[in-house]
TrEMBL record, chains A, B:
Domain of life: Bacteria
Binding site for substrate: T148, K170, T181, E261, N380, S385
CDD domains given in the database record: OAT
Protein name: Arginine biosynthesis bifunctional protein ArgJ
Organism: Microbacterium insulae
Listed pathway(s): Amino-acid biosynthesis; L-arginine biosynthesis; L-ornithine and N-acetyl-L-glutamate from L-glutamate and N(2)-acetyl-L-ornithine (cyclic): step 1/1; Amino-acid biosynthesis; L-arginine biosynthesis; N(2)-acetyl-L-ornithine from L-glutamate: step 1/4
Site features described as Involved in the stabilization of negative charge on the oxyanion by the formation of the oxyanion hole, chain residue numbers: T109, G110
Similarity comment text for this entry: Belongs to the ArgJ family.
A single MF term (Gene Ontology): L-glutamate N-acetyltransferase activity, acting on acetyl-L-ornithine as donor
Annotated NCBIfam families: ArgJ, PRK05388.1
SUPFAM superfamilies on file: DmpA/ArgJ-like (SSF56266)
């Protein structure tokens, strides 16, 4: 059900030929209220696609009626014509829904530089068709229409005490061709103010999508949107809702990791006993972005030297000669020296856990990443994307 | 001739079994003076190998009599035993040369964690044998003994007005297995003070080795050493010497790039019209470290969208929508939009040039990198290193 699991939402997914395969490529999600609360977080890349520029403005007032998403073209670096396409998309949806264009968000994903007249015509047609096909069980269709190189749709639902959260996501971390735009829409029928929605979403993404670092490459089109309808009539306990939202986002993030293109390992890097959570994140990210480490994991090689060399590049507080490293439960390095022999470590399962004990504090953070594989190189070199 | 091209230097390269292939693996370079000036720059990685920790202290006073370098083991994360090995190496050389151990530098390269009793015995034997075989034309032998995964030795010589600079280097950028330690020794018979040697070396490395960013992975053992004998009796013009030293270092850096493991393209990223040189370096480095860009070049794909997405992650001053990108002489992106068609760009040659025009100032910097290839993944996953 994904985004239509909570009350007050309708969705659709339609095919208009943006994808050469003929598969669905335009999704629409509409909030029927009574509340029309929206919040969103966006890529921090300064090179922003036109839908990002539009949506950042449109979400400012905390009111969102609908969101239109297309695959098959990123509409990024397509100039003022491309921006007008986004604007016209919002206007088309607004006109058909009887709302203000400024309350319609737009997301696009696909090849950078794609956004010509043909693209515009198809996106507008898809918007019209999608709105015509809106239904209270359209969440599944919508989740299919936003897929690009994804091998499967990503959906999650959490049932709270009288309220529900539903979500859909697309993208293969930041790993797929076309810069792997990550698009996420999460809906809830809980009663939230715009400020609450914004705060909850920022917290949830900070501990989920922001800690998925598949290949270190930042997209121009990433957008995570939360829509709240209030249709349950229930204002949830803030801590409980926040935890549930974070769990839904982490669930979707792990689905993205598990479908990362070309990857053969899903790597959880747990950094513990750090002086601060920021330190833990910095250390974990330095490992997640180290190509030598990632290639070693692909080769089932518990190469702790590459872990230490990676974390040595950070500013985090720790003594490089008093760090322990565990791989899949085996301590391979203790206090900056070799421990268990490499033969003791089994790295053949796809699920891989690396634990780094910094021994200076009590903060912890987990970063999700993937290995560097031949398929990654193939997918990202063999096709123009 | 490499390091023995200038007057006042002797060198040797010997084989003591550190390499399983039986090839030469210990090099010694000795400064016969009259001056015994030395300067060095080291990896900024906080995880430093024992030879780095030793050499950083030994070079402090600006006096260096000799340097001993071994391949076949990094002596990194080998604890106090490993540090004692480095110390004993310096003492052995000092004893045989009749100098102070504190004036002997040590470099090691190879697998992290290698530094046991057998390693120590071989390094000490190699030091003794190398000193016994020192000769004024031993530069070539020394350059062979520091090779690890290098397919060919790297040497450079510059002849100034009465003085000479010679150099040798090993490593495949930061790209090879074992974290690709980059070891460089540059010698000169010019008359330099320790302060001049240090300043000239820091300048030269900043515009050469520091701008070689093959895979973004920082070694634990990198060391670049300059030795000055003063044997020419000539104190060179400072600007002329600095330019010559930078040219020798850049020559060696380009040789490292050209031999980077698994690479199929040598990529020059020229960032021009930046607000500052720092901005230009930051922008160039962001592209050099972007796996999607690097995979695209491997696939001969002039994917300018990935260039813009990479530079959008920097803090440098520029307007992402007013940047031009050229690939091998063809402008593929102008003012944040598509320009020449991809078919107009020929990326088949190994030498690849990407020019990024930021249009905000007049600073320029060039970063050297390589593409991301199947061979890179293979080399760094198929072997424990």
């Amino acid at each position: 059900m994904s985004v239509t699991a909570p009350q007050g939402f309708e969705a659709a997914g339609v095919a208009v030929g943006l994808k050469s395969t003929g598969k669905p490529d335009v999704a629409v999600v509409v909030n029927r209220g009574p509340l029309k609360v929206g919040a969103a977080v966006f890529t921090s890349n300064r090179a922003k696609a036109n839908p990002i520029i539009w949506s950042q403005q449109a979400v400012q007032d905390g009111v969102v009626e609908a969101i239109v998403l297309n695959s098959g073209g990123a509409n990024c670096f397509t100039g003022s014509f491309g921006f007008q396409t986004t604007h016209q998309t919002a206007e088309k949806a607004a006109e058909l829904l009887g709302v203000s264009a400024g309350d319609v968000l737009v997301c696009s994903t696909g090849l950078i530089g794609t956004g010509d007249q043909v693209f515009r015509g198809k996106v507008l047609a898809g918007t019209e068709q999608g709105i015509a096909e809106l239904s209270a069980d359209g969440g599944e269709a919508a989740s299919l229409a936003i897929m690009t190189t994804d091998s499967r749709p990503k959906r999650a639902v959490h049932t709270g005490e009288g309220w529900t959260i539903g979500g859909m996501a697309k993208g293969a971390g930041m790993l797929a061709p076309g810069l792997a735009t990550m698009l996420v829409v999460v809906t809830t029928d809980a009663v939230l103010t715009a400020e609450q929605a914004d705060a909850h979403l920022r917290h949830a993404t900070a501990v989920s999508f922001d800690r998925l670092d598949s290949d270190g490459c930042m997209s121009t089109n990433d957008q995570v949107t939360l829509l709240a309808s209030g249709a349950s009539g229930i204002a949830p306990d803030a801590a409980g809702f926040r935890a549930a939202l974070a769990a839904v986002c982490l669930d979707l993030a792990e689905q993205l990791q598990g479908d990362a293109e070309g990857a053969s390992h899903d790597i959880r890097i747990v950094v513990k006993n750090a002086a601060s959570e920021d330190d833990a994140v910095e250390v974990g990210r330095s490992v997640a972005r180290n190509n030598l480490f990632k290639a070693a994991i692909f080769g089932n090689d518990p190469n702790w030297g590459r872990v230490l060399a990676a974390i040595g590049t950070t500013e985090a507080q720790f003594d490089p000669y008093d760090v322990d490293v565990w791989m899949n439960g085996v301590r391979v390095c203790t206090a900056g020296g070799p421990d268990a022999p490499r033969e003791a470590v089994d790295l053949t399962p796809r699920a891989t856990e690396v634990v780094i004990d910094l021994k200076v504090g009590d903060a912890v953070a987990t970063i999700l990443t993937n290995d560097l594989t031949h398929d990654y190189v193939h997918e990202n070199s063999a096709y123009s994307s």
